[in-house]
Amino acid sequence: MALLGQAAVAMWWDMSPDQLSEFEDWHSHEHFPERMGIPGFLRGSRWPSSEGSQGFFVMYELADYETLTSSHYLARLNNPTPWSTRMMPHHGNMVRSQCQIAESHGGGIARSMMTVRFSPRAGGTETLRRFLKSQLAELPDLPGMTGAHLLQTKTPDAKPTEEQKIRGGDAVADWILLLSGYNAGELLEVGKSRLGSRLLIEAGAMPSASYAMFDLAYTLTPSDVNFPG
User: 168 φ, ψ to 5°?
Assistant: First the structure.
């Protein structure tokens, strides 16, 4: 998949099995459509873990970085619906990163996604950036692959929102790789062989990269929603 726009919100969290059915109902039928009604929101996607965990990866693709601090978005974040207020405390181990899209290659929407969270070490930023730029452009054309992207967190200078307060505060990732493909096995092999932990460290990353695999459950764009009026 090619990412839409210039910015994104990338999130990871856990959901307990006893809340899963209501969570998917709420997230699909209220929360996603609500977010797609905010100017600048271009696409939302939800990806449950394919590794047997209770984790989810969720991403909103945004027209530009300014969307993150728009009055429309902040109004929703600070005025959650009753259903959202009930569901927010069940988002466990929340990581929420507000990002600029640094690299995006590929096209289409595929069923599998690998996410890699990592940080450059002191003095390694430019070397790491060059390494990733050279790798990512090639990956979408490999067997099993469709997309390769780099996101860099840039948290806006803003007060905590009501949703954040309900959740009790969120952790934040730093640099994020997103690799998508139609074959999970080949995607995993490409990710580990071309962007594995050892290679990232040699290119300038800290030795703390976190890898996870997800399957697409649902995606929505504003054109998919019948808004009132």
Answer: 90, 15
